[in-house]
Amino acid sequence: MKTKEMVFAALFAALIGVLGMIPPIPLGFIPVPITAQTLGVMLAGSFLGKKTGALSLVLFIVLVALGLPLLSGGRGGLAPLVGPSAGYILSWPIAAFCIGLAIEKVWSTLKIWKVIVINFIFGVVLVSLIGAPVMAIITNTSIWAGLVGATAFLPGDLIKAIIVAIIVMQIKAVSPIEQKVNN
């Protein structure tokens, strides 16, 4: 791995930590809050690509496990990684990898709508399909109830996917993916 990739991974782990400073929005009917951090997950995959994007989220989770209060609401340590949010948090490297893989495949013909669709499928639907069942198991509720509760995230996550698409299209020229394609 190149130094530049490690720096990008560290920067995006830090960015996701900064997004955690935005206060979470608790929902009364589901124990997982709405946070801005999934925007960082989508951005990491879309801008950094599969390998570096996933690495940035693995690094972020390791830092959280070590106790750094990087999750929204100032949470850190092992408790969030075994609590109701665990499935969502642990799905982030997978989501970043899948987003990056799909973005890399369409990079030469990248359009804003493609970035939105890719981020919605892997940054929203995939994260919910992993996170909601894990939350349901941990809270001893039905998986169906967990999936239904997770629909509360859809409107905000769609907005995040649109924001990420706009950002990525604006900074596409400086993306590490662009550097790989041109080399």
From TrEMBL:
Gene3D superfamilies cross-referenced by the UniProt entry: 1.10.1760.20
UniProt KW Transport keyword? yes
Q: Does the keyword Magnesium apply?
A: no
One Pfam entry for this protein is BioY
Question: Which compartment or compartments is the protein found in?
Answer: Cell membrane
Got a GO cellular component term for this one?
Answer: plasma membrane
Against InterPro entries, the record matches this protein to:
BioY
Question: Which molecular-function annotations from GO does this UniProt entry contain?
Answer: biotin transmembrane transporter activity
Note the topology in the membrane. Answer: Multi-pass membrane protein
**Sorted alphabetically, which keywords does the UniProt record give?**
Cell membrane, Membrane, Transmembrane, Transmembrane helix, Transport
List where the protein spans the membrane: 30-48, 55-73, 85-103, 115-138, 144-169
Main localization category: membrane
Classify the source by domain of life.
Bacteria
- What is the similarity comment for this entry? Belongs to the BioY family.
Q: What is this protein called?
A: Biotin transporter
Q: Could you read off the lineage of the organism from its UniProt record?
A: Bacteria, Bacillati, Bacillota, Bacilli, Bacillales
